Amino acid sequence: MDAPRNDATRPLYDHLERLLFTEAEIKARLVEMGAQITAEYEDRRQLTIVTILQGGMLFMADLIREIHLPMKVDSISVSSYHGGTESSGTITFNENRLPDLKDRHVIVLDDILDTGHTLHAITNRFRDECNPLSVKSCVLLSKKVDRAEKIEADFYGFEVENEFVVGYGLDYNGEYRNLPEIGVLKPEFYTHEA
Ligand code: IMP
Ligand code: MG
């Protein structure tokens, strides 16, 4: 594993079984993804990027600076885990307000695609209730699993195995989001729930 970036975050690194992606690797991939999205949307106007809070916030902040087009940004807050490491399958919209997406080309961002419940619920709701011109999805990580929902992201950064990962926005029980890298969480830090 790479050396931790500073002593203050040392306890967080001790919780990682191994590092998967360094800051530099994430940054390099975001440059590529930004170029891909820029090329695909450059003839369209009215792009709106909607990030799923909390997990997608770092991803959004960094990715939008690699998309060289006019755009609006918005966010939506949902819950699916309720504290554990397995998706509950029930997506709770934490607010009643939906973003204003009428006549917009929408890209929904999330940190990771796992069962697909989250992206499926949100993209369907946007299509059904918000009158967008189009809705696509973009995730930083795509887990290699048989998804409960038949949905794949239109854009993704990296594939990961079916392991619980944290960092760069991804949390366990609300923590680890501030790690600049992405790594596999040691099972001892969540097996107490089993
Ligand atoms: P899905 O609804 O099962 O596709 O899961 C998507 C949501 O679950 C994401 O928004 C993440 O917040 C969370 N999630 C899935 N896998 C992981 C993981 O390995 N680490 C942290 N969060 C995860
Ligand atoms: Mg999450």
Give a verbal description of the structure.
This protein has helices at residues 10-14, 23-41, 57-63, 117-129; strands spanning 16-21, 47-53, 72-79, 92-93, 105-113, 134-143, 155-160, 165-166, 182-185. With 194 residues, it is of the alpha/beta class. The chain has one domain (7-193): Rossmann fold (3-Layer(aba) Sandwich), CATH 3.40.50.2020. The strands form two sheets. It has a six-stranded mixed beta sheet, with helices on both faces. The protein starts with 9 loop residues before the first helix and ends in a 9-residue tail after the last strand. The mean pLDDT is 92. Inosinic acid (IMP) is lined by residues 52, 55, 80, 87, 110-118, 164-166, 170-171.
Q: In summary, what is this structure?
A:
The protein has helices at residues 10-14, 23-41, 57-63, 117-129; strands spanning 16-21, 47-53, 72-79, 92-93, 105-113, 134-143, 155-160, 165-166, 182-185. The chain is of the alpha/beta class and 194 residues long.
Number of domains: 1
Task: Provide the residue-averaged pLDDT.
Answer: 92
Order of helices and strands: HEHEHEEEHEEEE
Outline: globular
Total count of helical runs of at least 4 residues: 4
CATH T-level fold name = Rossmann fold
Question: What is the rounded distance between the termini?
Answer: 28 Å
Assembly context of the chains: single chain
Number of strands: 9
Main sheet overview: 6 strands, mixed
Structural class: alpha/beta
Strand content: 25-35%
* Named CATH architecture: 3-Layer(aba) Sandwich
| Major β-sheet strand ordering | 4-3-2-5-6-7
Q: Could you say which small molecules are bound to this protein?
A: inosinic acid, magnesium ion
Alpha carbon gyration radius: 17 Å
Query: Helix coverage percent of residues?
Result: 10-25%
CATH class: Alpha Beta
Low-confidence stretches: none
